[in-house]
Amino acid sequence: MSTTLYIGNLSFYTTEEQIHELFGRCGDIKRIIMGLDKVRKTPCGFCFVEYYTRTDAEMAMRYVNGTRLDDRIIRTDWDAGFVEGRQYGRGKSGGQVRDEYRTDFDEGRMGYGKIVSSKIKTRESI
Questions:
Q1: Where is this chain's protein located in or outside the cell (predicted)?
Q2: Which run of H or of E encompasses 38?
Q3: Residue 20, class by beta-carbon neighbours within 10 Å (0-12 exposed, 13-18 middle, 19+ buried)?
Q4: Is the separation of the CB atoms in 56 and 27 below 8 Å?
Q5: How far is Cα 104 from Cα 23, in angstroms, rounded to an integer?
Q6: CB atoms within 10 A of CB 63
Q7: Would you report the helix, strand and coil content of the chain in percent, each value rounded to 5?
Q8: How does the average pLDDT of the chain come out, rounded?
Q9: What is the pLDDT of residue 109?
Q10: pLDDT of amino acid 120
């Protein structure tokens, strides 16, 4: 009966205040943990929102999942509960794995995926 939600597909520019404003409409928030690039310590497109009650978390799952924030459709999912260390991206470069392999340009997530960006930079330096 977790009261913690995983929030994904956030823009790298989305702030904790924006998350609080949107998710606070569903109930009292205990804490927000922003996902960080483990190398640069900058936002990397996800967060955890912990509510005081399961009812408030259920409201957020029902009403906030699939809404638009910073021009992105965000998704929410149940999380077993935040444990220290999970706030860091798990990709090889420090961010999220899915951002390393993204081949399309996504301004909200700082351009192309890490692997594609490195290939572009390699070609430009030749």
A1: Nucleus
A2: none
A3: middle
A4: yes
A5: 29
A6: 13
A7: 35, 25, 40
A8: 77
A9: 53
A10: 46
d(CA 78, CA 88): 18
Which residue, 55, 56, 6, is CA-closest to 29? 56
Q: What is the pTM of this model?
A: 0.68
pLDDT of residue 91: 44
Return the amino acid letter for 117: S
Contacts of 50 (CB under 8 A, 6+ apart): 3, 4, 5, 29, 30, 31, 32, 33, 81, 82
Distances (CA, A) of 65 to 39, 93, 97, 106: 29, 28, 22, 21
Tokens of 77: 């999912």
CB 2 within 8 Å of CB 81: yes
Encoded amino acid at 61, one letter: M
H-only helix segments in 52-113: 54-63, 97-101
Each residue of 99-122: b (16+ CB within 10 Å) or e? bbebeeebebbbbbbbbbbeeeee
d(CA 61, CA 75): 9
